[in-house]
Write a structure and sequence with these properties.
Elements lengths: L1 H30 L12 H27 L3 H28 L28 H7 L5 H9 L2 H29 L3 H28 L5
Helix pairs in contact: 1-2, 1-3, 2-3, 2-6, 3-7, 5-6, 6-7
C-alpha cells in the first residue's frame, strides 16, 4: 500500500507536465494554422473578440489544468483535458490573428461590447469596475480560484464544474455579439464553433454535476 501511494505523486506530476506540454503545443498549432478567409482590415468586433476571448480562455485553461491534475474522476479528467487543450489552440489562433492584423494583443476589456446596439447591458460601459466586467463574462474571482486549488475529491470536481459552467455561459454572449457584428469569415466560423462546443460542454458538465451529486450553485 505504501509503495503504491509513494509512486502516485510522481505519476501525477508526470501527467501534469505532459498535459502542460500538450497545451503549449496546442497554442503553437493554433497560432500557426492557416490564416485566411477575410478582409485585410478587421472591424472593432473582430479585434475585441480576439483580445477578450484570449483573456477568457486563459482562465478556462487555468481552471481546467487545476481540475485535470487534482481530479480522480475519469469523466472530469477527460473533460478538463479537452477544455485546456482546445482553448489553448484557439488562443494561439487568436493571438496570430491580432499579430497578422498589426494591432496590440491587449485593449480595454469588453469595450467592443459598448457600441450602441443593445450589447451595452453586458456591463461593459466605459469606466466600469474591472471586477464587474469580469463577472459579466462569467469569470471566476481570485478567491474562487484559490478555493478551487485547495479543494480535493468530489468537492474539487463540483467546484470546477460550477465555475466552468458559469465561465462557458459568459462566453456565449461574446460569441453571439461577434457573430452579429464581426466582418471576417474565419472569425465568425471560429465563434460559431466555440458556441456549439461550449454549449455541448455545458450539457456534459451538468450531467456530471447530477452524477456526482453536486449541490446547485
Amino acid at each position: 500500500m505504501t509503495g503504491v501511494s509513494g509512486r502516485r505523486p510522481g505519476r501525477w506530476i508526470a501527467a501534469g507536465l505532459a498535459a502542460l506540454a500538450v497545451v503549449a503545443v496546442g497554442f503553437a498549432i493554433g497560432r500557426f494554422s492557416l490564416f485566411d478567409n477575410g478582409p485585410a482590415v478587421p472591424n472593432a468586433a473582430d479585434i475585441g473578440f480576439a483580445r477578450d476571448m484570449q483573456v477568457h480562455h486563459d482562465q478556462a485553461v487555468e481552471m481546467a489544468m487545476i481540475a485535470y491534475r487534482g481530479t480522480g474522476d475519469d469523466t472530469v479528467k477527460a473533460l478538463s483535458y479537452d477544455i485546456a487543450t482546445g482553448q489553448a489552440a484557439q488562443n494561439g489562433m487568436m493571438f496570430e490573428w491580432l499579430t497578422q492584423w498589426g494591432v496590440p494583443q491587449q485593449g480595454t476589456l469588453m469595450s467592443w461590447m459598448d457600441e450602441a446596439d443593445g450589447h451595452g447591458a453586458h456591463g461593459t460601459a466605459a469606466g466600469a469596475d474591472p471586477a464587474d466586467v469580469r463577472a459579466s463574462m462569467g469569470m471566476a474571482t481570485d478567491a474562487e480560484l484559490a478555493a478551487l486549488r485547495n479543494a480535493t475529491g468530489t468537492a474539487l470536481d463540483c467546484q470546477f464544474l460550477t465555475l466552468m459552467i458559469r465561465h462557458h455561459e459568459g462566453a456565449i454572449p461574446m460569441a453571439d455579439a461577434v457573430l452579429e457584428r464581426g466582418s471576417i469569415p474565419r472569425v465568425l466560423q471560429v465563434a460559431e464553433t466555440m458556441k456549439t462546443n461550449q454549449t455541448a460542454e455545458i450539457d456534459a458538465m451538468r450531467s456530471s454535476q447530477a452524477r456526482l451529486g453536486c449541490s446547485a450553485g
